């Protein structure tokens, strides 16, 4: 008997949001293309998916997102110029991006919410389990965040949502899980696991069922699509992913994995600056001079 659940082969990157928190930088440029040190935010997520064993990437784009497609495409002119100038190391950096992945794009014609963006990818995903990565959440971890989650999926065959504890004062900015006291699945995983009884979107601190906030990584069974189809439009006419996840949690087991690693919310200005500083300090080529520069800054 084959006990392995179907393999997760595809990763969906919803990238059709308006990025209003980053205006004016995002007026003519997608926020996913803002660079952290020297790499666009979305490339960190794509590299995480690859390092986790998934190379079939689906990017949900919207208006003004051509730069994302260009970034993962071959750039003949640039490659030719770098070749002529003998800049072989840069040539390799540029080539690696387009060689990296098999990528498909699908357009979300109107920004009707994250749930709607995931539903838009239905045809490309098909009836199989898949991952969703919100590129804004950059997770710096020794074991790639998605790999940590796939380990739980492979042991359970159930949907897995990434969570991390956050302080009570900021809990109302997040989706929060209500962990059920049921037994967690057996096995050794990167962090604690809990079965999810329910989820709440942006609760008041007093109403939060736990301190475990949803992070932008999901491994979902295809049953989520039916739940999304049945989800009513909520605030702002948007289809909320959280509403569909609540429905799914009532139908099938769903687990929360507390991710091991440092999460940066790069969709937020302060989070973006912190990520830039921390990632730059870790770089072999920049870390030392950058640290010296920061030390010398006057308070
Ligand atoms: P956010 O809540 O961060 O929204 O979306 P946003 O529009 O991108 O940014 P702000 O809040 O206005 O600054 C979470 C994720 O869902 C995607 C976004 O691209 C982001 O990855 N999204 C959101 C869509 O793909 N489509 C939508 O209609 C809404």
SSE map:
Elements: E1 10-15, E2 35-36, E3 39-40, H1 41-51, E4 56-61, H2 66-72, H3 76-84, H4 88-99, E5 102-107, H5 114-120, H6 122-125, E6 130-133, E7 137-140, H7 145-156, E8 159-165, E9 175-180, E10 193-201, E11 212-220, H8 223-230, H9 241-251, E12 254-258, E13 262-265, H10 269-281, H11 287-296
Parallel strand pairs: 1-4, 1-6, 4-5, 8-12
Antiparallel strand pairs: 2-3, 6-11, 7-13, 8-11, 9-10, 10-12
Short description:
With 299 residues, the chain is of the alpha/beta class.
Could you please describe the fold and organization of this structure?
This protein has 299 residues and is an alpha/beta fold. It has one domain: Alpha-Beta Complex (Spore Coat Polysaccharide Biosynthesis Protein SpsA, Chain A). It is built from eleven helices and 13 strands. The strands form three sheets. A nine-stranded mixed beta sheet has the order 5-4-1-6-11-8-12-10-9, with helices on both faces. A hairpin with a 2-residue loop joins β2 and β3 (39-40). The chain is globular. Bound molecules: uridine 5'-triphosphate. The site of uridine 5'-triphosphate has 21 residues, from β1 and α5.
């Amino acid at each position: 008997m084959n006990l392995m659940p179907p393999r997760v082969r595809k990763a969906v990157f919803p990238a059709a949001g308006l990025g209003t928190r980053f205006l004016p930088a995002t007026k003519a440029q997608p926020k996913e293309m803002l660079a952290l040190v020297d790499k666009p935010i979305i490339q960190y997520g794509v590299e995480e998916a690859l390092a986790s064993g998934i190379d079939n990437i689906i990017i949900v784009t919207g208006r003004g997102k051509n730069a994302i497609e260009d970034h993962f495409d071959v750039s003949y002119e640039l490659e030719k110029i770098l070749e002529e100038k003998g800049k072989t190391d840069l040539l390799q950096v540029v080539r690696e991006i387009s060689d990296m992945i098999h990528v498909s794009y699908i357009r979300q014609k109107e920004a009707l919410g994250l749930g709607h963006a995931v539903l838009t990818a239905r045809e490309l995903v098909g009836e199989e389990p898949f991952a969703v990565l919100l590129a804004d959440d950059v997770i710096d971890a020794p074991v790639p965040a998605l790999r940590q989650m796939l380990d739980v999926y492979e042991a359970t065959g159930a949907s897995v949502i990434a969570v991390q504890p956050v302080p009570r004062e900021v809990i109302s900015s997040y989706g929060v899980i209500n962990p059920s006291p049921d037994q967690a699945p057996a096995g050794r995983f990167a962090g604690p696991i809990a079965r999810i009884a329910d989820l709440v979107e942006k609760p008041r601190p007093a109403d939060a069922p736990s301190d475990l906030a949803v992070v932008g990584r999901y491994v979902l069974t295809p049953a989520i699509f039916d739940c999304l189809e049945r989800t009513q439009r909520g605030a702002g006419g948007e289809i909320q992913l959280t509403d569909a996840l609540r429905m799914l949690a009532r139908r099938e087991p769903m687990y929360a994995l507390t991710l091991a690693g440092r999460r940066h919310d790069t969709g937020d200005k302060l989070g973006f600056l912190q990520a830039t500083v921390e990632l730059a300090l870790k770089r072999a080529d920049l870390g030392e001079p950058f640290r010296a520069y920061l030390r010398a800054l006057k308070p």
